[in-house]
Q: What sequence folds into this?
């Protein structure tokens, strides 16, 4: 477990050393020996913010310290931290600190600080996480997909589901799967999909995607949505993955399985699938 934590901390240290540089998510994730897909998933679950948000918050914190402690021009600090113009820097600065960059240079100006992250995972006894590892052959899904940005996906994906649910009986699929895949940098595809049989017609407005054969860790999520899924998702990355032995993460997929709702929300049962391969 310790090596996994050290790798993730190394990625954060890399960001800290390069706050004034244009960092690529592939570089950051590589320091933790993870794909960009899983790195961003795990970072969000462990830290509560996205990678991009963390970098912005740290840059704003550092920029304020420089303005307050040195005779530095606002435009020089803006360029140093990646802003194309003083205006865009000033707007971002004021959203974070509540004052303008020029005001930050005044003695006693009230400033906010966002400290560097330090990953520390503690394993607590007495908490059960229900899962099983299974092997599945390749299977095909059919559904609707939409491209999302990792920075806004937590807000935008529920909107996608609401738009789809609003179609009522006109929906071409039931929506058994929620699948994240095809990540490129910070962008990825999200599918609302069902199982597809090759001898059937593809439903109108839908596409198909083959999910490769793999070992899968299947996690039980019991209780009302979305809390049950979000809580289990956080525990997968903070408790289960650091102690995983014999397997490593495989593929760039994130799959949620939605079962028919129970009579009472507290009895709802859904699943999260994480693809694995033998170490």
A:
């Amino acid at each position: 477990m310790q090596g996994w934590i050290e790798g993730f901390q190394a990625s954060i240290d890399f960001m800290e050393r390069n706050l004034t540089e244009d960092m690529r998510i592939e570089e950051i994730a590589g320091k933790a020996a993870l794909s960009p897909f899983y790195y961003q998933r795990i970072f969000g679950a462990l830290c509560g913010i996205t990678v991009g948000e963390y970098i912005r918050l740290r840059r704003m914190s550092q920029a304020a310290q420089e303005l307050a402690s040195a005779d530095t021009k606002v435009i020089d600090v803006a360029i140093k931290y990646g802003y194309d113009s003083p205006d865009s820097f000033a707007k971002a600065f004021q959203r974070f600190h509540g004052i303008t960059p020029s005001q930050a240079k005044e003695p006693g100006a009230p400033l906010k600080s966002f400290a560097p992250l330090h990953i520390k995972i503690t394993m607590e006894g007495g908490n059960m996480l229900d899962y099983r590892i299974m092997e599945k052959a390749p299977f095909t899904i059919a559904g609707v997909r939409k491209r999302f940005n990792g920075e806004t996906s937590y807000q935008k994906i529920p909107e996608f589901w609401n738009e789809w649910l609003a179609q009522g009986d006109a929906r071409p699929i039931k929506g058994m799967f929620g699948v994240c895949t095809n990540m490129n940098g910070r962008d990825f595809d999200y599918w609302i999909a069902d199982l597809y049989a090759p001898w059937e017609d593809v439903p109108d407005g839908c596409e198909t995607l083959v999910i490769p054969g793999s070992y899968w860790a299947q996690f039980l999520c019991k209780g009302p949505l979305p809390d049950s899924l979000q809580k289990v998702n956080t525990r997968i990355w903070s408790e289960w993955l650091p102690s995983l032995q014999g397997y490593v993460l495989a593929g760039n997929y994130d799959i949620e399985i939605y079962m028919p709702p129970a009579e009472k929300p507290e009895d709802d049962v859904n699943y999260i699938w994480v693809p694995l391969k033998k170490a």
The radius of gyration is 22 Å. The beta strands are 131-136, 139-149, 177-184, 187-195, 207-211, 214-222, 247-249, 254-258, 269-278.
